[in-house]
Amino acid sequence: MAVETESATSPSVVPTADTASAGAEAHGATTGAEHSAGLPQFQFQHWGGQIGYMLILFVALYVLMAKVFVPRMRRVLDERAATIADAISSAKAVQAEADSRAEAAKRALADARAVAQRTAAEASAKAAAEMAERKAALETELSARQAEAEGRIRAARDAAMGQLAAVATDTAEAMLEKLTGAKAPRAAVATAVKSQG
To answer: For residue 92, is it within any domain?
Structure first.
């Protein structure tokens, strides 16, 4: 009996069969009504709230895009464009400087070639002038030596001819003495040899 009083005094936790069946029926009716109506997004009575939320979200997104994201993107794109423009302008400046240096190098090379050609021409002309001067000096020296040699030859020839005349006179005198047996006068023999040449 003690168990019975205890159960009578404590509240009943276990639902009875009637309450369980009534709850199930109510739940089934609610779920059936929800399922029979379809999705709430497609029911006209919910469209006003959905459009309002969509407008609020659109305005919030538009404000975020217009005030936060687009200026940041525009700033990044402007910085990128400025960096690219600076890089292009510096590259053009470097290219122009390289072109001017190449042109200056070409001019310097052309000037160096002209100077080298002029120096070579001057050296060639100087060498030719020195060669002509040496040739003229050598020809002068050779002609002086030739004249001196010719003078010596002439003197030697004249001396030899003079000695030849004396030898011829001696020979003629000896021949006459041998042939005639008498000694002929030397002056007459010398005159005769000289007249015979």
So the answer is: yes
